[in-house]
């Protein structure tokens, strides 16, 4: 894999993408999201900053805008080795057992009163395909998912990551900002029409309410103005989610890095209460999340900022890849349904390869 430090990203509904490359020097490594104050560039932040996974800021000396185009994607070669298929079957069986155990842990934590929501993430080593050129995969993802934020990050020390994510963390123009509470998931009906409202279970509404309340409570002391709408159905690939939009302006003494530090990670990728949930995630998922459920995008406190949560993503490592996805667990959750939800989310990246 090339060690060139570059990023490609395509905003939702756009027919062009931006390619950023840093040829001089290295991206800046930071210990904390707060260290973004006073800086600008392309941010690639992890779920939890550490020495192994710092917050990276790419400061490009080359900026290109290119058309996504139609293209003719050459699908990745599929392995047909019988022994490999046996290993894949064994791995999937182990992964299923591991998920059941972690789901049971969630239920125990609820009974003990430690948390009221906890996000279980899955990190699946996909071995069925030979990985193609990352930039070709990026363009294919752009064409498959025109309504999502698509990004390819290739940094020498962070690795190569491709994502198709529906969730805004913060976007704005230096004065006016927007974020969203996105939680609750169901499969899209075959006859679904964009803008159509659907019935949502109490479990999904409760999960989404946790995120919306957290965002409102976090932003309120940091903002001059804070407005929000009602939960509504929104589309992401072949899935539907519940979403509440927030628009705000910041207090004069508040910097954008401070807001990001306060918001991230939201309960949509962590849990409630945040500190207790994060502690459990870091203990039981070890270092597997890395940059999954972090955030990335162009960042300029005095100009355009478009930061998205790093969801529905894959990490490309030499000739294979690791898929990342997760789902929020609340006391009403049912294990089989939650497993199916993570499978649907993993399919967002699987479909890029098929």
UniProtKB/TrEMBL annotation:
InterPro entries on file: ADC_synthase, Chorismate_C, IsoChor_synthase
GO molecular function: isochorismate synthase activity
EC class name: isomerase
This protein's name: isochorismate synthase
Domain Chorismate-utilising enzyme C-terminal: 96-345
Catalyses which reaction(s): chorismate = isochorismate
Family classification: Belongs to the isochorismate synthase family.
Gene3D superfamilies per the UniProt record, alphabetical: Anthranilate synthase
């Amino acid at each position: 894999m090339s060690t060139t430090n570059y990023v490609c990203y395509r905003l939702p509904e756009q027919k062009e993408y931006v390619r950023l490359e840093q040829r001089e020097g290295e991206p800046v490594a930071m210990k904390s999201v707060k260290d973004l104050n006073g800086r600008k560039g392309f941010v690639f932040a992890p779920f939890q900053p550490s020495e192994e996974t710092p917050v990276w800021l790419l400061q490009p000396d080359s900026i290109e805008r290119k058309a996504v185009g139609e293209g003719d994607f050459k699908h990745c070669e599929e392995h047909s080795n019988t022994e490999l298929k046996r290993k894949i079957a064994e791995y999937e069986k182990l992964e299923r057992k591991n998920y059941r155990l972690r789901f049971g842990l969630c239920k125990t934590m609820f009974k003990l009163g430690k948390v009221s929501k906890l996000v279980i993430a899955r990190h699946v080593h996909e071995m069925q395909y030979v990985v193609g050129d990352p930039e070709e995969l990026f363009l294919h993802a752009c064409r498959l998912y025109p309504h999502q934020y698509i990004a390819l990050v290739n940094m020498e020390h962070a690795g190569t990551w491709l994502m198709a994510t529906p969730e805004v963390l913060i976007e704005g123009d230096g004065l006016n900002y927007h974020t969203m509470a996105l939680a609750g998931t169901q499969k899209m009906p075959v006859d679904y029409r964009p803008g159509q409202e659907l019935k949502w279970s109490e479990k999904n509404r409760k999960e989404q309410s946790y995120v919306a309340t957290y965002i409102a409570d976090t932003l309120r002391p940091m903002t001059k103005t804070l407005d929000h709408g009602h939960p509504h159905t929104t589309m992401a690939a072949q899935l539907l989610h519940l979403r509440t939009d927030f628009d705000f302006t910041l207090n004069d003494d508040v910097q954008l890095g401070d807001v990001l530090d306060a918001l991230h990670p939201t309960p949509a990728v962590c849990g409630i209460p945040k500190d207790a949930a994060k502690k459990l995630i870091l203990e039981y998922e070890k270092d597997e999340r890395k940059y999954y459920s972090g955030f990335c995008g162009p960042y300029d406190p005095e100009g355009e900022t478009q930061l998205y949560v790093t969801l529905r993503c894959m990490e490309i490592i030499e000739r294979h890849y690791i898929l990342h996805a997760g789902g929020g667990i609340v006391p009403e959750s049912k294990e089989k349904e939650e497993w199916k939800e993570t499978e649907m989310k993993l399919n967002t990246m699987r479909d890029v390869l098929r």
